Amino acid sequence: MPLYEYYCEPCHGVFEELRPMREAGEAVPCPECYEDADRIMPTSFAAFTFRDGYPRKIPDDGTYWHLGQKVSTRVTGGRPNEHPEVNKPVPKKRLTRGERSAINDMREVAAKGDLVDMFNNPISPREVKQAYDRRDVIKKGVPARIHKDMKRKFR
């Protein structure tokens, strides 16, 4: 059955009703005030057609629709319900020049044995990048105990 729009004058409401085509011109009671409402022309209209197995909006401009968004190509593979134009992969965060410089400086300090975490545990130069990525508290100080990598250095 087609969907028709009706307008109720007493309550100024527009509502939709599923009706058989033969009853489309007849008045329908308003769901708010139960007065008879006359049919009006649709206020909104959207039509789709299927080409190549995917919906396309009419008029056809050569694009496809994927989960309500306009895309230029069809999905040919990948994960279900994901399109490369809609679900773009998030690029890995790259370190800025200042962050790279700070990590190198921290590695130099760690090589001397003067870099510790918030519990006064020593940090080796190899652990600086991982600690920085985890956003651990890193500070300059004297370690409470000597790290195993530092023992090799001082022997």
Helix and strand element order: EEEEEEEEHEHEH
Name the beta content range.
Answer: 25-35%
Query: What strand line-up does the widest sheet have?
Result: 2-1-4-3
The rough form would be described as elongated
Strand count: 10
List the domain count as a whole number: 3
Largest beta-sheet characterization? 4 strands, antiparallel
**N-to-C CA distance:** 88 Å
Average predicted confidence as pLDDT: 83
Backbone CA Rg: 34 Å
Spans of 5+ residues with little confidence (pLDDT < 50)? none
Class computed from helices, strands and strand pairing = alpha+beta
- Number of helical segments with 4 or more residues: 3
Kindly report the oligomeric state of this protein. single chain
Helix content: 10-25%
What is this structure's SSE topology?
Blueprint: E1 3-8, E2 13-18, E3 28-29, E4 36-40, E5 48-51, E6 54-57, E7 64-66, E8 69-71, H1 97-112, E9 115-117, H2 128-133, E10 138-140, H3 148-154
Antiparallel strand pairs: 1-2, 1-4, 3-4, 5-6, 7-8, 9-10
Question: Quick recap of the structure?
Answer:
Helices cover 19% and strands 25% of the residues. It has helices at residues 97-112, 128-133, 148-154, and strands at residues 3-8, 13-18, 28-29, 36-40, 48-51, 54-57, 64-66, 69-71, 115-117, 138-140.
Describe this structure in words.
The protein folds into three domains: 3-40; 47-89, no CATH class; 97-154, no CATH class. The protein has helices at 97-112, 128-133, 148-154; strands spanning 3-8, 13-18, 28-29, 36-40, 48-51, 54-57, 64-66, 69-71, 115-117, 138-140. A four-stranded antiparallel sheet has the order 2-1-4-3, with no helix packed on it. The model has no long low-confidence stretch (mean pLDDT 83). Strand 7 and strand 8 form a beta hairpin. The protein is built from three helices and ten strands. The protein is an alpha+beta fold. The longest helix is centred in the last third of the chain and has 16 residues, at 97-112. The protein is elongated, with a radius of gyration of 34 Å.
